Amino acid sequence: MPTVQPVTIVDVARRAGVSAGTVSNVLTGKRPVAEATRVRILRAIEELGYQPNLLARSLVNRSSNTLGVVTSGLEYYGPSRTLVGIEAQANELGYSLLLDLLHRPDVDDVAAILDDLTARRVDGIIWAVHEVGGNRHWIAPERLRALPPIVFLTMKSRPGTSILSTDNRTGALLATQHLIDLGRRKIALVAGPQDWWEARERLAGWQAALEGAALDVSSRMIVYGDWMPSSGEQALRRLLEAQPDIDGVFASNDQMALGVLRACHFLHRRVPDDIAVVGFDNMPEAEFLWPSLTSVRQRLTELGRGAVQTLHSAIEARGQGSALAPGVQLLTPELVVRESTIGRND
Amino acid sequence: MPTVQPVTIVDVARRAGVSAGTVSNVLTGKRPVAEATRVRILRAIEELGYQPNLLARSLVNRSSNTLGVVTSGLEYYGPSRTLVGIEAQANELGYSLLLDLLHRPDVDDVAAILDDLTARRVDGIIWAVHEVGGNRHWIAPERLRALPPIVFLTMKSRPGTSILSTDNRTGALLATQHLIDLGRRKIALVAGPQDWWEARERLAGWQAALEGAALDVSSRMIVYGDWMPSSGEQALRRLLEAQPDIDGVFASNDQMALGVLRACHFLHRRVPDDIAVVGFDNMPEAEFLWPSLTSVRQRLTELGRGAVQTLHSAIEARGQGSALAPGVQLLTPELVVRESTIGRND
DNA sequence: AATGGCAGTTAAAACGTTTTAATTAATTTT
DNA sequence: AAAATTAATTAAAACGTTTTAACTGCCATT
Q1: What domains does chain A contain, in order, with CATH numbers?
Q2: At A178, is the pLDDT very low, low, confident or very high (cuts 50, 70, 90)?
Q3: Is the pLDDT of residue A133 over 60?
Q4: Residues 26-65 of A with CB under 7 A from strand D
Q5: Residue A16 burial class via C-beta count within 10 angstroms: exposed 0-12, middle 13-18, buried 19 and up
Q6: What is the mean pLDDT of the segment spanning A164-190?
Q7: Is residue A321 less than 8 Å (CB to CB) from chain B?
Q8: Which of A202, A339, B15, B313 could form a disulfide with B44 if both were Cys (CB 3.0 to 4.6 A apart)?
């Protein structure tokens, strides 16, 4: 059952009474071809149902029009949303996407993945793996220069690399300042794991805002969670035991904020009357909790799009023998105010 | 700046004092090669930092070891979780993944995507696009037979195709039966859009359970939502206006259940004392709402893995000239019982 | 002592494109 | 009318692999 379809460019050429090169010319449009023969060729293509073999084309072009995307945590909102942006932009620029997932970022074999990607001759790589833990496998610098252009998402700055990220510090500062502006004076932080760069940045933003208002930033006001809701719930219980008069909480992500709200419910603290709560990420559910959750919105799809754009420029640049100046691009997030800080407004 | 790495198999061959064919033999392991020369070749590979060009290999093998994945709604939990399963299984079987996203499933050009996938000579395709709307572009049957093997996820049965799906009907039946077992007698349904196959199946499951207990399944007990939380909230308000004595609700997904819980909160109906609520999907947040949400868990990663396994079998079968019998595989979901039906248990 | 088989190797032919350099035909310039 | 230019086309050489078929030696059969 040869469902395979062996119709090749020379089949088309033969039927159109022309050479393969000419067919290629109308396909790529790189060289002029007489109108009469062009229509003859197009008809032949149509009649035979010819489809070019991109593998062969890539082989001679030394370029596959493909980007490799390495990411992790796709089951969470942030990474998957970013991937959507990456895909959309890649599509618009004519790239296909080769997807690799790190299921356990601290353990998985990065080298093997990079090998496969280069073996498949991707034109560029987007590295969207969260920095987690200290013993995580990193791309060795000497390896880096043997790779195609690469852009890093949400990652600590490294010399010689291109990086895109949300400005986590400013986001946290916006959130905390909002609480201060509402008159809150004892504002606790539910922090993320400090081996994540994002977590450290958000802590720094919280701290900066409070220091600007001369409020308490001592370690009594901080509890560390693990990004998960349950840790947020526990965090608030611990905080309230030690500091019963806390009137504001900034949780470093929405999941932990969820836990905070849950704890408030069972501890009979009214939100926002007794305690105002702000999260970070603006996940889709934030709007529909009770009370709905004030949160910091990252422009995730723009982040993904920006990564592809930067990568595209780098690819073009290298194609012309030059290199693109590496650097850090920060996207400023915005605060979305809801019931958890200003109460019901209906 | 020629960062390109032109080291090819014949470079290796030359350095090892051997022909290209022999190098290929040690690479593929398909034919025996003397131990002495093997080590010589391996050393040459090492020293030159040779990396095989998979494009060239694919060209001659007529197989790219790549699967195309077409999906949509990646920003939601279900599709992204499924993708994780797909990727994991694909990886284990040695496939890479070419990812295509439909951003607007009812509008996007399916033909162009299929063209690109076949042009790139993928070995198989996983079609994980939700069936939505009637005027959505569908893969034309005559096109289907010119494509590589293809597996459909979460889609209505079609003759001659392989399909994997959660058994939505049974899941809905489990959920509703649970409410009945708890003694609830007026059990409403917040249904999904009826142009989705999943939505119709879940309605059928609800109906079957209630009919088994001789309870009211009239249209008064049904409100149709759009999967979003706000529609769930509105739905409950409408239901309670007409039927104030409703004591149980099955929402066709967790998002709408979220809206139902929110409405209950603001309408001062206690959950589960006054109204017991069950959702569908078991999204990560379900566990941490207040009350936590009883829900139906789909085995999403297994769904993804199963799709790849089925596809792999089909590819192997076609490689041997035979075809795999198409069919439908249903994965039975399970009920996760939480506070929204049985109350707080601490 | 011839035959056969086997293990290892290789030269050359694919795979399906694009590109280069050459060739032809048509058109313009002198 | 010859020469020079331009426009289309083509044959052949890439691109980097695998595979086929042929060719060695060498050893074991008879």
Answers
A1: 9-52 (1.10.260.40), 66-166+301-333 (3.40.50.2300), 168-297+335-342 (3.40.50.2300)
A2: very high
A3: no
A4: 31-34, 36-37, 56, 59-60, 62
A5: buried
A6: 97
A7: yes
A8: B15
